[in-house]
Write a structure and sequence with these properties.
mainly beta, two-stranded antiparallel ribbon
């Protein structure tokens, strides 16, 4: 996933230096037996390390049990 240029906005648009960008890794899957979607997201920066991480499962609304 590539977002292009990033900016900080404090009343005006200031370009964010490339070394502060976050790199993301997203892994998605669907398990037909259980009807569950699984997602694993990891956003990191070479200098700062992990910025955000999430791992979870969900079921589509209206697809059986709610």
């Amino acid at each position: 996933m590539n977002t292009g240029s990033l900016f900080i906005v404090f009343g005006r648009k200031i370009p964010l230096p490339a070394f502060l960008y976050g790199n993301s890794r997203v892994i998605e899957s669907y398990q037909e037996e259980s009807g569950l979607f699984h997602i694993n997201v990891h956003v990191s920066n070479p200098l700062l390390g992990t910025l955000f991480a999430y791992k979870g499962s969900f079921r589509e609304m209206g697809s059986g049990e709610e």
